[in-house]
Design goal:
The protein is of the alpha+beta class. The protein is 37% helix and 23% strand.
Length: 431
Amino acid sequence: MLHSPEHLTWPNSYPPPEPQRVLVVDDSRAQRMLLSSLLRRWGHEVVDCGTAEEALVAALDPTVDLVISDWVMPGLTGPEFCRHVRTNRRAGYAYVILLTSKTGDSALSEGLEAGADDFLTKPVRPPELRARLNAGARIVAMQRDLVSKNGLLTGALGELRTLYDALDRDLDEARRLQRAQMQDRARRYGPVDVSLWLKASGHIGGDMVGAFPVEGDTVGVFGLDVSGHGVASAIVAARVAGILSAASPDQNIALTRRADGGFRAVSPDLAAARLNRMILSEMRSDRYFTLALGFLDIPTGILSMVQAGHPHPLVLRADGEIEFAGAGGLPIGLIEGADYERFDVALHPGDRVLVYSDGLIECPGASGGALEEEGLVRLARLAAPHGGLHFLSALEDGLARFAGTANFSDDASAVLITYRGPTDYSPRHAR
């Protein structure tokens, strides 16, 4: 039994409800009229149905946020009606309140299992109905807000995925360009073989290695390691590798033009100083890098090098002896006016020199601790029976066994120089 709304008064402090579209389901026309009149007085829009079957169609309307249904009706009971509402597909959530004269726990359990959100016992008290409607309206509003935010989040995630896909494509292209610079990994310059190895810890890395012929029976080799990882480091590495390439000798900072128009190598310590000034003044990058740059004079077997923060080169003698060379030095692009020291290594037929980045000696082991120089010597001895690229492959395999993984935590690179002895040589015959 519902009291007539005309005689109801409310305190001024009662919060006015937000207007909702409410579906009223009751086979009693009088009950529907009383409920509808009260709801409209509170500012709600009402859709009333006399049968559950008719109400199922109306409940599909996504603008219907609240449903008030009688429990006992012909055709479908209130719980049966509620179950159909939950199984039918519709946009948005409908908050369902069942009106019942039943008070037992079993009846309430039946309604909850059917998907009802709330209950009101008859006769309905308007203040309680209004409070339940407000609670339902808040839940529906929160659900709608959640759906809206989920939609925004889904859209943002989609845009982010698009950006990541574009970044992946750019990184793949950058990796292909980086590999293109390493396309010719085994190079022969007369009696000198140069083998290159590069393994990035991510898509692309900041390590780079290379070699180039110089007029006058000289071969230039270099290895560099840019600070940091990723695209920024790779850009600097590619830029420096381009500067030290043979493609444009007049742009190669390690070469100078002779009086006859040809080119000769400058002292590697002078080349390092030039490169340091250029990085600090022209490139204006916050990245610095370590560098090992050397020039091998083929007739004499003298390898003149500079070690700018790069690890000490490893010299593997033909008789099996292994030694470290180098005078150390500051990285490139770190301190203005830095001085660099040249050192020479005398090579004999069969001797080899390994120039490598710190990604090897600082590689963490599976059981703890880094490889360090002693570990590198052990790996070099195991790889020593192999030559050229096979030596570097054996070195990589040994490093992977030490690390317990083939995916290293830092970029790693190496240049292997094999000197077979003096002979008639011309850069024109280099391949």
